[in-house]
């Protein structure tokens, strides 16, 4: 079982790296077959020593149609397959308000 499956980063700056760590709470190591993120801006990596999922989230620039507002809402997802199967086992949701400057 993962410590969290939903994370709100609040307000973050465009093109700036954000680091998220989510601990595995089980006594045994999870068997992770595969991990995929919903966007290239989100990169997951599992650290076996600390039993921690480390995610780097680097949001893109504010899109042209949102320039007047200077911000946009971003929701990304990391899917984890703990077995070789078609359906993922766990989804970690990451959300943030992305601004040009904070």
Textual characterization of the structure:
- This protein has 102 residues and is an all-beta fold.
- It is 0% helix and 50% strand.
- The chain has a single domain, classed as Immunoglobulin-like.
- Strands 1-7-6-3 form a 4-stranded mixed β-sheet, with no helix packed on it. A 3-stranded antiparallel β-sheet has the order 2-5-4, with no helix packed on it.
- A hairpin with a 4-residue loop joins strand 4 and strand 5.
- The mean pLDDT is 95.
Estimate percent helicity: under 10%
Query: What is the number of helical segments per DSSP (H or I, 4+ residues)?
Result: 0
Strand count, sense and barrel status of the largest sheet are: 4 strands, mixed
Would you give the CATH topology? Answer: Immunoglobulin-like
Query: What is the string of SSEs from the N terminus onward?
Result: EEEEEEE
Question: Structural class of the secondary structure composition?
Answer: mainly beta
Strand segment tally: 7
CATH class call:
Mainly Beta
What's the alpha carbon Rg, rounded to whole Å? 15 Å
**How would you state the average pLDDT, rounded?**
95
Assembly classification: single chain
Give the overall silhouette.
elongated
Count of separate structural domains: 1
The share of residues in extended strands comes to: over 45%
């Amino acid at each position: 079982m993962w410590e969290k499956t939903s994370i709100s980063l609040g307000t973050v700056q465009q093109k700036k790296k954000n680091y998220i760590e989510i601990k595995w709470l089980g006594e045994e190591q999870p068997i992770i077959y595969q991990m995929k993120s919903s966007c290239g801006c989100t990169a997951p990596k599992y650290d076996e020593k600390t039993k921690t999922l480390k995610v780097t989230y680097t949001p893109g620039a504010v899109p042209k149609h949102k320039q007047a507002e200077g911000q946009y809402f971003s929701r990304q997802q990391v899917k984890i397959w703990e077995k070789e199967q078609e359906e993922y086992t766990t989804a970690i949701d990451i959300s943030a308000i992305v601004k040009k400057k904070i």
